[in-house]
Specification:
single chain, 200 residues, alpha/beta, six-stranded mixed beta sheet, 8 helices, 20% strand, globular
Length: 200
């Protein structure tokens, strides 16, 4: 999201080297992708993290001057012994890095829904992870929602299919219901290769 005075990035993406180790061969480094649209990752001062899974947040080191906005419940979840379970822990790779960043004061931790800056709001929905959040952006043509993996695919919303990777199924369903309440003009889901979903 680019304003007159600053750029706010939502999710730092996945490190290409780790992606390759995990069998993903077409990953692009976030700094290179931003450079293509005239944004210098070194100059970005704020990154909103929808959640801390490796594919959405593990390239945080590419933003050396940024403050990272996340839900407190998400950061606290990193200390849970449940992350020792392979079915859960395999989605995380930078726990120590995030802990060090938090200790260095580089996280702005939220406790629920909160305005990040005027016109941009974080909505805590949980479900996918304990601190999953969606981002609502006011625009010229109405509001847009960046759902992260709270709603991973367009058809997840259209066909009312809650995310299949979840900590709390009821909250995952609730994320779909939040979109109904907001009625945004556009929905950007977490993994859909298709264009954003127009809801007007």
């Amino acid at each position: 999201m680019r304003g007159r005075d600053s750029t706010i990035v939502v999710d730092s993406g996945l490190p290409p080297d780790e992606a390759l180790r995990r069998g993903i061969t077409d990953a692009k480094d976030v700094a290179a992708a931003l450079s293509e649209i005239g944004v210098d990752a070194d100059a970005v001062r704020m990154v909103v993290l929808t959640h801390l899974h490796w594919d959405h947040a593990s390239n945080a080191v590419r933003f050396p001057k940024a403050t990272f906005v996340a839900q407190r419940a998400e950061l606290e979840w990193l200390t849970s012994p449940l992350l020792g379970e392979k079915t859960i822990g395999r989605f995380y790779s930078d726990i120590n890095t995030f802990t060090k960043m938090a200790d260095a004061g580089r996280f702005r931790l939220l406790d629920g829904d909160e305005t990040i800056v005027p016109g941009i709001e974080a909505l805590k929905v949980g479900g996918h992870t304990p601190g999953s959040q969606m981002v609502v952006v006011d625009g010229h043509n109405g509001q847009s929602v960046i759902a992260g993996d709270a709603i991973p695919m367009n058809r997840s919303y259209v066909e009312r299919i809650p995310t299949g990777i979840h900590i709390n199924l009821l909250q995952a369903i609730g994320a779909l219901e939040r979109i109904d309440m907001i009625r945004p003009a556009t929905l950007f889901t977490g993994h859909d290769p298709e264009a954003a979903l127009s809801l007007l």
